[in-house]
Amino acid sequence: MFGPGPLHLSRLAVEKKADVSAVLNAFFNPVDLNVPGLLMQRAVLASGSIPAEAFGGGDSWLTNSIFVALIVMGIILLFTRMATRRMELIPGAKQNFVEFIVEFLYSQVEEILGEKVAKRAFPLLATIFIYVLVSNWFGLLPGVGTMGFAHSEEDLTGPVTLSETAHFTPLLRPASADLNATLGMAVVFMLVWFFITMRETGPVDFLKHIFAPKGGLTGFMWILLVPIFAFVGVIEVISILFRPVSLSLRLFGNVYAGETLLHAMSGMADKLPGAVKFLFDILLPLPFYFMEILVGILQAVVFALLCTVYIQLSTAHDEEEH
Amino acid sequence: MDQLKDILTMFGVTWGKFLAQVFIFLIVYLVLKKFAFGPVMAMLDERKRRIQEGEENLEKIKRDLDEAEAKTHEIIDVANKKSERMIEDARESAETFTNQQRQEAVHEANQIIAKAKEAGRLEQEQMASELKREFGRLVIDTTSKVSGKVLDQDDQERINRETAGQIAL
Questions:
Q1: The whole model's pTM is what?
Q2: Which ipTM value was assigned to this complex?
Q3: Contact list, B36 vs chain A (CB under 8 Å)
Q4: Would the pLDDT of A251 be above 50?
Q5: Of the four listed, A20, A153, A180, B30, which is most buried by Cβ atoms within 10 Å?
Protein backbone atom coordinates (compact mmCIF):
# COMPACT_ATOMS: atom_id res chain seq x y z
CA MET A 1 0.00 0.00 0.00
CA PHE A 2 2.72 2.47 0.97
CA GLY A 3 4.86 1.88 -2.04
CA PRO A 4 6.24 5.06 -3.52
CA GLY A 5 9.28 6.99 -2.50
CA PRO A 6 8.58 10.22 -0.71
CA LEU A 7 9.53 12.52 -3.54
CA HIS A 8 7.23 11.03 -6.11
CA LEU A 9 4.15 12.47 -4.58
CA SER A 10 5.42 15.97 -4.22
CA ARG A 11 6.87 15.78 -7.68
CA LEU A 12 3.56 14.57 -8.94
CA ALA A 13 1.82 17.32 -7.12
CA VAL A 14 4.03 19.89 -8.75
CA GLU A 15 4.34 18.53 -12.22
CA LYS A 16 1.16 16.66 -13.02
CA LYS A 17 -1.02 19.57 -12.08
CA ALA A 18 -2.96 17.34 -9.73
CA ASP A 19 -5.09 18.60 -6.91
CA VAL A 20 -4.80 17.41 -3.32
CA SER A 21 -7.16 14.50 -3.81
CA ALA A 22 -5.12 13.42 -6.82
CA VAL A 23 -1.98 13.56 -4.72
CA LEU A 24 -3.55 11.45 -2.00
CA ASN A 25 -4.96 9.08 -4.58
CA ALA A 26 -1.56 8.76 -6.18
CA PHE A 27 0.03 8.01 -2.86
CA PHE A 28 -2.10 4.93 -2.38
CA ASN A 29 -1.78 3.88 -6.02
CA PRO A 30 1.89 3.50 -6.86
CA VAL A 31 1.18 2.69 -10.49
CA ASP A 32 0.23 6.29 -11.11
CA LEU A 33 3.62 7.40 -9.90
CA ASN A 34 5.65 5.65 -12.48
CA VAL A 35 5.45 8.52 -14.88
CA PRO A 36 8.50 8.87 -17.07
CA GLY A 37 10.12 12.17 -17.89
CA LEU A 38 9.07 14.05 -14.78
CA LEU A 39 11.31 16.87 -13.81
CA MET A 40 12.65 17.46 -10.39
CA GLN A 41 12.59 20.64 -8.45
CA ARG A 42 14.96 19.73 -5.65
CA ALA A 43 15.10 23.12 -4.05
CA VAL A 44 11.38 23.26 -3.61
CA LEU A 45 10.69 19.62 -2.96
CA ALA A 46 13.61 18.42 -0.93
CA SER A 47 12.34 18.84 2.57
CA GLY A 48 10.60 22.11 2.82
CA SER A 49 11.91 25.17 4.58
CA ILE A 50 13.68 25.29 7.93
CA PRO A 51 10.63 26.80 9.69
CA ALA A 52 7.53 24.68 9.89
CA GLU A 53 5.03 25.68 7.23
CA ALA A 54 1.83 27.33 8.38
CA PHE A 55 -1.27 26.03 6.66
CA GLY A 56 -2.39 28.64 4.20
CA GLY A 57 0.83 30.62 4.67
CA GLY A 58 1.21 33.66 6.82
CA ASP A 59 1.86 33.69 10.55
CA SER A 60 -0.85 31.27 11.55
CA TRP A 61 0.07 29.24 14.61
CA LEU A 62 -1.28 26.08 13.01
CA THR A 63 1.70 24.59 11.19
CA ASN A 64 2.18 21.16 9.71
CA SER A 65 4.50 20.43 12.65
CA ILE A 66 1.85 21.36 15.21
CA PHE A 67 -0.63 19.26 13.25
CA VAL A 68 1.72 16.27 13.60
CA ALA A 69 2.30 17.12 17.27
CA LEU A 70 -1.46 16.89 17.78
CA ILE A 71 -1.53 13.54 16.00
CA VAL A 72 1.40 12.30 18.11
CA MET A 73 -0.34 13.51 21.23
CA GLY A 74 -3.48 11.66 20.15
CA ILE A 75 -1.55 8.46 19.45
CA ILE A 76 0.23 8.52 22.81
CA LEU A 77 -2.83 9.41 24.82
CA LEU A 78 -5.08 6.95 22.98
CA PHE A 79 -2.63 4.09 23.42
CA THR A 80 -1.97 4.79 27.09
CA ARG A 81 -5.69 5.21 27.67
CA MET A 82 -6.36 1.83 26.05
CA ALA A 83 -3.53 0.25 28.01
CA THR A 84 -4.34 1.71 31.40
CA ARG A 85 -8.14 1.92 31.30
CA ARG A 86 -8.65 -1.36 33.11
CA MET A 87 -5.50 -2.04 35.03
CA GLU A 88 -5.23 -5.58 36.28
CA LEU A 89 -2.72 -7.39 38.41
CA ILE A 90 -2.26 -9.91 35.62
CA PRO A 91 -1.74 -7.53 32.70
CA GLY A 92 -2.86 -7.88 29.11
CA ALA A 93 -0.54 -7.28 26.16
CA LYS A 94 -0.97 -3.50 26.00
CA GLN A 95 -0.79 -2.98 29.76
CA ASN A 96 2.24 -5.24 29.88
CA PHE A 97 3.96 -3.21 27.18
CA VAL A 98 3.26 0.10 28.93
CA GLU A 99 4.38 -1.35 32.26
CA PHE A 100 7.56 -2.63 30.69
CA ILE A 101 8.34 0.82 29.24
CA VAL A 102 7.52 2.63 32.48
CA GLU A 103 9.44 0.17 34.65
CA PHE A 104 12.47 0.24 32.38
CA LEU A 105 12.54 4.04 32.20
CA TYR A 106 11.98 4.40 35.92
CA SER A 107 14.82 2.04 36.77
CA GLN A 108 17.16 4.04 34.51
CA VAL A 109 16.08 7.36 36.03
CA GLU A 110 16.24 5.99 39.56
CA GLU A 111 19.74 4.70 38.98
CA ILE A 112 20.93 8.22 38.15
CA LEU A 113 18.80 10.38 40.42
CA GLY A 114 18.15 8.15 43.39
CA GLU A 115 14.74 7.12 44.67
CA LYS A 116 13.63 10.44 46.17
CA VAL A 117 14.29 12.75 43.22
CA ALA A 118 13.39 10.05 40.68
CA LYS A 119 9.80 9.97 41.95
CA ARG A 120 9.45 13.70 41.23
CA ALA A 121 11.34 13.91 37.96
CA PHE A 122 10.29 10.64 36.36
CA PRO A 123 6.95 11.73 34.82
CA LEU A 124 8.57 14.61 32.92
CA LEU A 125 11.62 12.63 31.83
CA ALA A 126 9.51 9.69 30.68
CA THR A 127 7.16 12.03 28.81
CA ILE A 128 10.10 13.66 27.08
CA PHE A 129 11.49 10.32 25.99
CA ILE A 130 8.18 8.91 24.77
CA TYR A 131 7.07 12.12 23.06
CA VAL A 132 10.39 12.66 21.29
CA LEU A 133 10.63 9.01 20.26
CA VAL A 134 7.11 8.86 18.82
CA SER A 135 7.61 12.21 17.09
CA ASN A 136 10.90 11.10 15.55
CA TRP A 137 9.59 7.76 14.34
CA PHE A 138 6.35 9.31 13.12
CA GLY A 139 8.50 11.34 10.73
CA LEU A 140 9.69 8.13 9.10
CA LEU A 141 6.22 7.04 8.05
CA PRO A 142 5.65 7.21 4.30
CA GLY A 143 3.87 10.40 3.41
CA VAL A 144 5.26 12.54 6.21
CA GLY A 145 7.04 15.44 4.55
CA THR A 146 6.06 14.28 1.08
CA MET A 147 2.31 14.63 0.94
CA GLY A 148 1.09 18.15 0.78
CA PHE A 149 -0.08 21.12 -1.20
CA ALA A 150 1.56 22.99 -4.06
CA HIS A 151 0.76 26.65 -4.45
CA SER A 152 2.20 29.35 -6.58
CA GLU A 153 5.04 31.16 -4.89
CA GLU A 154 3.23 34.45 -5.25
CA ASP A 155 0.04 33.34 -3.51
CA LEU A 156 0.50 30.64 -0.91
CA THR A 157 -3.16 30.77 0.03
CA GLY A 158 -4.28 30.44 -3.56
CA PRO A 159 -5.41 27.35 -5.44
CA VAL A 160 -3.26 24.28 -5.78
CA THR A 161 -0.97 24.45 -8.76
CA LEU A 162 1.58 22.13 -10.28
CA SER A 163 3.78 24.62 -12.02
CA GLU A 164 7.52 24.07 -11.84
CA THR A 165 7.97 27.08 -9.59
CA ALA A 166 5.24 26.10 -7.19
CA HIS A 167 5.89 26.15 -3.49
CA PHE A 168 5.29 22.78 -1.89
CA THR A 169 3.86 22.70 1.64
CA PRO A 170 4.01 19.28 3.24
CA LEU A 171 0.86 18.26 5.05
CA LEU A 172 2.85 16.49 7.75
CA ARG A 173 6.17 17.43 9.26
CA PRO A 174 7.75 15.65 12.25
CA ALA A 175 7.03 17.62 15.41
CA SER A 176 10.66 17.38 16.45
CA ALA A 177 11.75 18.87 13.12
CA ASP A 178 10.36 22.20 14.31
CA LEU A 179 12.45 24.34 16.66
CA ASN A 180 9.26 25.56 18.36
CA ALA A 181 8.58 22.03 19.58
CA THR A 182 12.08 21.19 20.72
CA LEU A 183 12.53 24.61 22.33
CA GLY A 184 9.13 24.25 24.00
CA MET A 185 10.11 20.91 25.52
CA ALA A 186 13.47 22.28 26.62
CA VAL A 187 11.90 25.32 28.25
CA VAL A 188 9.29 23.22 30.04
CA PHE A 189 12.07 20.96 31.24
CA MET A 190 14.14 23.88 32.51
CA LEU A 191 11.16 25.20 34.48
CA VAL A 192 10.57 21.81 36.05
CA TRP A 193 14.32 21.44 36.61
CA PHE A 194 14.35 24.76 38.46
CA PHE A 195 11.33 23.76 40.55
CA ILE A 196 12.84 20.38 41.49
CA THR A 197 16.23 21.92 42.25
CA MET A 198 14.74 24.60 44.47
CA ARG A 199 12.65 22.04 46.27
CA GLU A 200 15.55 19.67 46.79
CA THR A 201 18.33 22.08 47.67
CA GLY A 202 16.71 25.43 48.37
CA PRO A 203 17.91 28.74 46.90
CA VAL A 204 20.80 29.23 49.33
CA ASP A 205 22.30 25.81 48.78
CA PHE A 206 21.73 26.18 45.04
CA LEU A 207 23.69 29.44 44.96
CA LYS A 208 26.37 27.91 47.19
CA HIS A 209 26.50 24.93 44.87
CA ILE A 210 27.17 27.23 41.92
CA PHE A 211 29.37 29.97 43.37
CA ALA A 212 30.96 28.77 46.60
CA PRO A 213 34.39 27.10 46.68
CA LYS A 214 34.20 23.33 46.76
CA GLY A 215 36.51 20.61 47.95
CA GLY A 216 36.21 21.20 51.68
CA LEU A 217 38.55 24.23 51.67
CA THR A 218 38.77 26.42 54.77
CA GLY A 219 40.60 29.49 56.01
CA PHE A 220 42.92 31.44 53.75
CA MET A 221 42.64 29.02 50.82
CA TRP A 222 38.88 29.39 50.88
CA ILE A 223 39.13 33.19 50.73
CA LEU A 224 41.76 32.97 48.00
CA LEU A 225 39.60 30.75 45.83
CA VAL A 226 36.34 32.68 46.26
CA PRO A 227 36.88 34.91 43.19
CA ILE A 228 37.87 31.95 41.03
CA PHE A 229 34.85 29.91 42.03
CA ALA A 230 32.63 32.97 41.62
CA PHE A 231 33.90 33.34 38.07
CA VAL A 232 33.36 29.62 37.45
CA GLY A 233 29.87 30.11 38.86
CA VAL A 234 29.13 32.81 36.29
CA ILE A 235 30.26 30.43 33.54
CA GLU A 236 28.07 27.74 35.10
CA VAL A 237 25.07 30.08 35.04
CA ILE A 238 25.71 30.83 31.37
CA SER A 239 25.98 27.13 30.61
CA ILE A 240 22.70 26.51 32.46
CA LEU A 241 21.02 29.27 30.47
CA PHE A 242 22.29 27.71 27.26
CA ARG A 243 20.97 24.27 28.13
CA PRO A 244 17.56 24.78 26.52
CA VAL A 245 19.28 26.13 23.41
CA SER A 246 21.66 23.19 23.12
CA LEU A 247 18.95 20.66 23.92
CA SER A 248 16.51 22.03 21.40
CA LEU A 249 18.98 22.69 18.58
CA ARG A 250 20.56 19.24 18.92
CA LEU A 251 17.25 17.45 18.55
CA PHE A 252 15.92 19.78 15.86
CA GLY A 253 19.16 19.59 13.86
CA ASN A 254 19.32 15.81 13.94
CA VAL A 255 15.72 15.21 12.97
CA TYR A 256 15.63 17.94 10.33
CA ALA A 257 18.91 16.69 8.86
CA GLY A 258 17.54 13.15 8.82
CA GLU A 259 14.44 14.25 6.96
CA THR A 260 16.53 16.18 4.45
CA LEU A 261 18.84 13.21 3.99
CA LEU A 262 15.94 10.87 3.24
CA HIS A 263 14.52 13.33 0.71
CA ALA A 264 17.90 13.79 -0.93
CA MET A 265 18.44 10.04 -1.20
CA SER A 266 15.00 9.61 -2.71
CA GLY A 267 15.84 12.04 -5.50
CA MET A 268 19.35 10.88 -6.34
CA ALA A 269 18.31 8.96 -9.42
CA ASP A 270 16.17 11.61 -11.04
CA LYS A 271 18.13 11.70 -14.27
CA LEU A 272 17.83 7.96 -14.82
CA PRO A 273 15.13 6.29 -16.90
CA GLY A 274 11.72 5.72 -15.30
CA ALA A 275 11.86 2.12 -14.05
CA VAL A 276 15.46 2.39 -12.82
CA LYS A 277 14.69 5.68 -11.16
CA PHE A 278 11.67 4.19 -9.46
CA LEU A 279 13.80 1.31 -8.17
CA PHE A 280 16.58 3.60 -6.97
CA ASP A 281 14.11 5.95 -5.36
CA ILE A 282 13.03 3.06 -3.19
CA LEU A 283 16.38 1.37 -2.60
CA LEU A 284 18.67 4.37 -2.00
CA PRO A 285 16.88 5.78 1.04
CA LEU A 286 16.34 2.34 2.53
CA PRO A 287 19.62 2.08 4.54
CA PHE A 288 19.08 5.63 5.74
CA TYR A 289 15.62 4.72 6.97
CA PHE A 290 17.24 2.16 9.28
CA MET A 291 19.79 4.73 10.33
CA GLU A 292 17.02 7.23 11.05
CA ILE A 293 15.21 4.65 13.17
CA LEU A 294 18.36 4.46 15.28
CA VAL A 295 18.82 8.22 15.26
CA GLY A 296 15.19 8.61 16.36
CA ILE A 297 15.64 6.52 19.49
CA LEU A 298 19.17 7.81 20.08
CA GLN A 299 18.04 11.42 20.09
CA ALA A 300 15.17 10.59 22.42
CA VAL A 301 17.64 8.88 24.76
CA VAL A 302 20.12 11.76 24.52
CA PHE A 303 17.48 14.41 25.24
CA ALA A 304 16.01 12.50 28.20
CA LEU A 305 19.41 11.43 29.52
CA LEU A 306 20.82 14.95 29.43
CA CYS A 307 17.76 16.23 31.24
CA THR A 308 18.26 13.53 33.86
CA VAL A 309 21.91 14.40 34.26
CA TYR A 310 21.09 18.11 34.59
CA ILE A 311 18.71 17.31 37.43
CA GLN A 312 21.25 15.00 39.03
CA LEU A 313 23.99 17.64 38.89
CA SER A 314 21.90 20.24 40.63
CA THR A 315 20.29 18.00 43.24
CA ALA A 316 23.24 15.81 44.22
CA HIS A 317 25.24 16.64 47.32
CA ASP A 318 28.50 18.45 46.79
CA GLU A 319 30.75 15.58 47.87
CA GLU A 320 29.11 13.32 45.30
CA GLU A 321 29.37 15.64 42.36
CA HIS A 322 32.65 16.13 40.64
CA MET B 1 18.68 41.47 20.15
CA ASP B 2 17.95 41.96 16.48
CA GLN B 3 20.32 39.14 15.68
CA LEU B 4 18.48 36.84 18.07
CA LYS B 5 15.22 37.92 16.47
CA ASP B 6 16.65 37.18 13.02
CA ILE B 7 17.78 33.72 14.16
CA LEU B 8 14.39 32.95 15.68
CA THR B 9 12.67 34.17 12.51
CA MET B 10 14.97 32.02 10.39
CA PHE B 11 13.95 28.98 12.43
CA GLY B 12 10.30 30.01 12.38
CA VAL B 13 10.04 30.49 16.13
CA THR B 14 7.06 32.65 17.01
CA TRP B 15 5.15 33.02 20.26
CA GLY B 16 2.02 31.43 18.80
CA LYS B 17 3.72 28.33 17.46
CA PHE B 18 5.99 28.06 20.48
CA LEU B 19 3.12 28.26 22.95
CA ALA B 20 1.06 25.81 20.90
CA GLN B 21 3.89 23.27 21.05
CA VAL B 22 4.38 23.94 24.76
CA PHE B 23 0.67 23.40 25.43
CA ILE B 24 0.62 20.17 23.45
CA PHE B 25 3.65 18.89 25.32
CA LEU B 26 2.21 19.97 28.66
CA ILE B 27 -1.08 18.21 27.90
CA VAL B 28 0.81 15.02 27.06
CA TYR B 29 2.90 15.43 30.22
CA LEU B 30 -0.01 16.09 32.56
CA VAL B 31 -2.28 13.43 31.10
CA LEU B 32 0.46 10.80 31.13
CA LYS B 33 1.44 11.78 34.66
CA LYS B 34 -2.11 11.47 35.95
CA PHE B 35 -3.53 8.64 33.88
CA ALA B 36 -0.53 6.57 32.87
CA PHE B 37 2.53 6.87 35.08
CA GLY B 38 0.54 7.22 38.30
CA PRO B 39 -1.65 4.12 37.85
CA VAL B 40 1.17 2.11 36.26
CA MET B 41 3.60 2.94 39.07
CA ALA B 42 0.88 2.18 41.63
CA MET B 43 0.22 -1.13 39.90
CA LEU B 44 3.94 -1.93 39.78
CA ASP B 45 4.25 -1.05 43.47
CA GLU B 46 1.20 -3.15 44.26
CA ARG B 47 2.61 -6.07 42.29
CA LYS B 48 5.99 -5.64 43.94
CA ARG B 49 4.29 -5.54 47.32
CA ARG B 50 2.31 -8.67 46.53
CA ILE B 51 5.38 -10.47 45.27
CA GLN B 52 7.24 -9.45 48.40
CA GLU B 53 4.29 -10.52 50.51
CA GLY B 54 4.11 -13.79 48.62
CA GLU B 55 7.81 -14.37 49.12
CA GLU B 56 7.48 -13.56 52.80
CA ASN B 57 4.53 -15.94 53.05
CA LEU B 58 6.52 -18.55 51.19
CA GLU B 59 9.39 -18.07 53.61
CA LYS B 60 6.97 -18.28 56.51
CA ILE B 61 5.35 -21.41 55.12
CA LYS B 62 8.78 -22.91 54.57
CA ARG B 63 9.77 -21.98 58.09
CA ASP B 64 6.53 -23.40 59.47
CA LEU B 65 7.01 -26.52 57.42
CA ASP B 66 10.54 -26.91 58.74
CA GLU B 67 9.28 -26.30 62.24
CA ALA B 68 6.43 -28.77 61.74
CA GLU B 69 8.86 -31.32 60.34
CA ALA B 70 11.20 -30.79 63.26
CA LYS B 71 8.27 -31.02 65.63
CA THR B 72 7.04 -34.17 63.93
CA HIS B 73 10.51 -35.66 64.20
CA GLU B 74 10.63 -34.64 67.81
CA ILE B 75 7.22 -36.14 68.50
CA ILE B 76 8.15 -39.32 66.65
CA ASP B 77 11.42 -39.46 68.59
CA VAL B 78 9.57 -38.95 71.87
CA ALA B 79 6.98 -41.53 70.87
CA ASN B 80 9.72 -43.94 69.84
CA LYS B 81 11.51 -43.42 73.09
CA LYS B 82 8.25 -43.76 74.99
CA SER B 83 7.29 -46.90 73.16
CA GLU B 84 10.77 -48.31 73.67
CA ARG B 85 10.51 -47.50 77.33
CA MET B 86 7.04 -49.06 77.47
CA ILE B 87 8.30 -52.16 75.71
CA GLU B 88 11.25 -52.26 78.08
CA ASP B 89 8.93 -51.75 81.03
CA ALA B 90 6.63 -54.44 79.73
CA ARG B 91 9.57 -56.73 79.20
CA GLU B 92 10.88 -55.96 82.67
CA SER B 93 7.49 -56.36 84.29
CA ALA B 94 6.96 -59.58 82.34
CA GLU B 95 10.34 -60.79 83.49
CA THR B 96 9.59 -59.72 87.03
CA PHE B 97 6.22 -61.36 86.88
CA THR B 98 7.76 -64.51 85.43
CA ASN B 99 10.41 -64.53 88.11
CA GLN B 100 7.85 -63.87 90.76
CA GLN B 101 5.64 -66.63 89.42
CA ARG B 102 8.61 -68.92 89.17
CA GLN B 103 9.63 -68.07 92.72
CA GLU B 104 6.10 -68.54 93.93
CA ALA B 105 5.90 -71.83 92.09
CA VAL B 106 9.25 -72.89 93.50
CA HIS B 107 8.18 -71.72 96.94
CA GLU B 108 4.88 -73.53 96.61
CA ALA B 109 6.64 -76.61 95.33
CA ASN B 110 9.07 -76.39 98.22
CA GLN B 111 6.19 -76.00 100.59
CA ILE B 112 4.44 -79.02 99.05
CA ILE B 113 7.66 -80.96 99.26
CA ALA B 114 8.20 -79.86 102.84
CA LYS B 115 4.65 -80.75 103.74
CA ALA B 116 5.03 -84.07 101.98
CA LYS B 117 8.28 -84.65 103.80
CA GLU B 118 6.70 -83.64 107.07
CA ALA B 119 3.74 -85.87 106.41
CA GLY B 120 6.11 -88.70 105.44
CA ARG B 121 8.16 -88.13 108.55
CA LEU B 122 5.13 -88.01 110.76
CA GLU B 123 3.78 -91.09 109.11
CA GLN B 124 7.17 -92.75 109.49
CA GLU B 125 7.33 -91.69 113.12
CA GLN B 126 3.82 -92.91 113.68
CA MET B 127 4.63 -96.16 111.99
CA ALA B 128 7.86 -96.43 113.96
CA SER B 129 6.07 -95.78 117.21
CA GLU B 130 3.38 -98.22 116.25
CA LEU B 131 6.05 -100.66 115.23
CA LYS B 132 7.84 -100.07 118.50
CA ARG B 133 4.67 -100.47 120.37
CA GLU B 134 3.81 -103.55 118.42
CA PHE B 135 7.28 -104.86 118.88
CA GLY B 136 7.14 -104.03 122.57
CA ARG B 137 3.85 -105.88 122.79
CA LEU B 138 5.38 -108.81 120.97
CA VAL B 139 8.38 -108.73 123.29
CA ILE B 140 6.05 -108.59 126.33
CA ASP B 141 3.91 -111.39 124.95
CA THR B 142 6.96 -113.40 124.16
CA THR B 143 8.53 -112.65 127.51
CA SER B 144 5.34 -113.53 129.39
CA LYS B 145 4.96 -116.71 127.39
CA VAL B 146 8.59 -117.63 127.80
CA SER B 147 8.71 -116.81 131.47
CA GLY B 148 5.15 -117.92 132.09
CA LYS B 149 4.75 -115.03 134.27
CA VAL B 150 2.08 -112.46 134.04
CA LEU B 151 3.83 -109.25 133.71
CA ASP B 152 2.47 -106.35 135.65
CA GLN B 153 2.12 -102.88 134.46
CA ASP B 154 5.55 -101.76 135.59
CA ASP B 155 7.26 -104.70 133.96
CA GLN B 156 5.46 -104.07 130.77
CA GLU B 157 6.44 -100.43 130.78
CA ARG B 158 10.06 -101.28 131.63
CA ILE B 159 10.21 -103.95 128.89
CA ASN B 160 8.60 -101.54 126.43
CA ARG B 161 11.09 -98.84 127.35
CA GLU B 162 14.07 -101.13 127.08
CA THR B 163 12.83 -102.58 123.82
CA ALA B 164 12.18 -99.17 122.41
CA GLY B 165 15.65 -98.12 123.55
CA GLN B 166 17.26 -100.99 121.82
CA ILE B 167 15.32 -100.72 118.59
CA ALA B 168 16.87 -98.08 116.32
CA LEU B 169 14.62 -97.15 113.60
A1: 0.69
A2: 0.78
A3: 80, 83-84, 98, 102
A4: yes
A5: A180
